């Protein structure tokens, strides 16, 4: 620790440290990682001591240029902090730059991805509220203001929409702010007008409608949207066996403007279930019914298999960075999202062994799905009803 030390939650801001001070952080065992904002290898660089102690170490030089601090570095600083386990030491020569990076990070991460991200000026306001050194340094204060503005402009447009007609389905609208191209995941027939109105309000051009799987509990809005907007193309996994304009294979990317979601095969609830993964907004996984908040989809209908579902979730979803948010196809308790870490540690079914999981899933004793006889045949043909 030094005179510059400042602790904010799980982050420790530090200035220049002597080797003995670095060593005391390591030997006390209270920190798990270190982010250095100076070029690696300078005088008294903590890199080798931190690395050899087995702590996670990252170095993202954050240095003032003639035109000021570069806003391009904002995303790499945020990604570096995302990847590091906490508590984390953030260090530079005086802890000033470290405090600016922290203010930006907290602003960006604490905002709810379902709302507008990073209100203009929010990072600087937070730095002032926490009385961080960066708020008193004009070049860092203006960096914070510029970063907030740029991030607001370039962040993914995102809306989580809920089916109020009865199925408790979440439909997700993702839009690229530059091109205005957008995709819609898992629309519900009864909510199509609402979904299109939201896209229109945001001046988005709907390009693709994606389904995570052939649903048994509601009729998809895909066909109705295509009737209203003939330019829209439908997508579903090839393994689903359902009709669509474009069939998706694992590993493919669905692009909209400069954004994309990656297709990951997560069968087990049905053969054709996929999870769509976005790297935007800190990482998001649209898991369909493969993984729900503190639960998972049933495995007793539509080619369900508990063993397959267990393997899918562990290999394709729990392997994502733990900070990635999990957005399921449903929630029946008013919850909006979870994270990979939360489900890895708190999901009452998927924290168990494969054998225990199978036993739980085989003994759920759930009633026959109410709408399955109408929904599955309709969804096999995009939800179009004559
Ligand atoms: Fe389902």
Give the N-to-C terminal Cα separation: 72 Å
CATH topology of the largest domain: Metallo-beta-lactamase, Chain A
Low-confidence stretches: 111-118
User: What is the top-level CATH class of the largest domain?
Assistant: Alpha Beta
Largest sheet descriptor: 6 strands, mixed
> Any ligands, ions or cofactors bound here, and which?
fe (ii) ion
Q: Indicate the overall shape.
A: globular
Q: In percent terms, what proportion of residues is strand?
A: 15-25%
The DSSP helix count reads 12
Task: Describe this entry's structure for a reader.
The protein starts with 5 loop residues before the first strand and ends in a 6-residue tail after the last helix. It has helices at residues 19-28, 47-52, 73-83, 96-110, 122-129, 138-154, 192-201, 222-228, 306-317, 340-346, 354-362, 372-380, and strands at residues 6-8, 11-14, 33-36, 56-59, 88-91, 157-162, 170-175, 181-185, 205-210, 233-237, 246-248, 253-256, 259-265, 274-278, 284-288, 325-328, 338-339. It folds into two domains: 6-154, Protein-Tyrosine Phosphatase, Chain A (Alpha-Beta Complex), CATH 3.90.190; 157-380, Metallo-beta-lactamase, Chain A. With 386 residues, it is of the alpha/beta class. Helix 4 (96-110) packs across helix 5 (122-129). The chain is 31% helix and 20% strand. A hairpin with an 8-residue loop joins strand 13 and strand 14 (274-278). The protein is built from twelve helices and 17 strands. It has a six-stranded mixed beta sheet, covered by helices on one side. A six-stranded mixed beta sheet has the order 12-13-14-15-16-17. A five-stranded mixed beta sheet has the order 1-2-5-3-4. It is globular. The chain binds fe (ii) ion (FE2). Residues 213, 215-216, 269, 289, 297 line the site of fe (ii) ion. The site of fe (ii) ion has 6 residues, from loops. This is persulfide dioxygenase.
């Amino acid at each position: 620790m030094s005179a510059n030390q400042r602790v904010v939650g799980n982050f420790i801001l530090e200035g220049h440290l002597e080797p003995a001070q670095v060593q005391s952080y390591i030997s006390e065992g209270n920190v798990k990682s270190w982010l250095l904002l100076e070029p690696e290898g300078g005088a008294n660089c903590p890199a080798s001591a931190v690395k050899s102690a087995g702590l996670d170490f990252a170095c993202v030089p954050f240095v003032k240029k003639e035109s000021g601090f570069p806003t391009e570095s904002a995303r790499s600083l945020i990604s570096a902090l995302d990847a590091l386990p906490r508590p984390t030491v953030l260090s530079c020569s005086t802890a000033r730059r470290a405090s600016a990076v922290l203010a930006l990070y907290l602003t960006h991460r604490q905002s709810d991805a379902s709302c507008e991200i990073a209100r203009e000026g929010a990072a600087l306001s937070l730095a002032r509220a926490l009385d961080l050194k960066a708020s008193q340094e004009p070049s860092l204060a203006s960096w914070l203001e510029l970063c907030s503005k740029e991030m607001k402009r370039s962040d993914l447009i995102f809306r989580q929409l809920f089916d109020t007609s009865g199925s408790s389905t979440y439909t997700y609208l993702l839009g690229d702010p530059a091109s205005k191209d957008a995709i819609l995941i898992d629309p519900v027939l009864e909510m199509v007008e609402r979904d299109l109105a939201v896209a229109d309000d945001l001046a988005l051009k709907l390009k693709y409608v994606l389904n995570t799987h052939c649903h048994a509990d509601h009729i998809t809005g895909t066909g109705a949207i295509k009737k209203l907007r003939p330019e829209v193309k439908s997508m579903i996994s090839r393994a689903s066996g359902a009709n669509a304009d474009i069939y998706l294979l694992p590993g493919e990317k669905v692009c909209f403007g400069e954004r994309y979601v990656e297709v990951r095969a997560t069968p087990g609830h049905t053969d054709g279930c996929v999870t769509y993964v976005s790297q935007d907004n800190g990482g998001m996984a649209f898991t369909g019914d493969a993984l729900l908040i503190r639960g998972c989809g049933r495995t007793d209908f539509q080619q369900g298999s508990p063993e397959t579902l267990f393997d899918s979730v562990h290999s394709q979803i729990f392997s994502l960075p733990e900070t990635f948010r999990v957005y399921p196809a449903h929630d029946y308790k008013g919850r909006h999202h979870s994270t990979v870490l939360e489900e890895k540690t708190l999901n009452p079914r998927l924290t168990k062994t494969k054998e225990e999981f199978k036993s739980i899933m085989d003994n759920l004793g759930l009633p026959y799905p109410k709408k399955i006889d109408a929904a599955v045949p309709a969804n096999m043909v995009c939800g179009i009803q004559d």
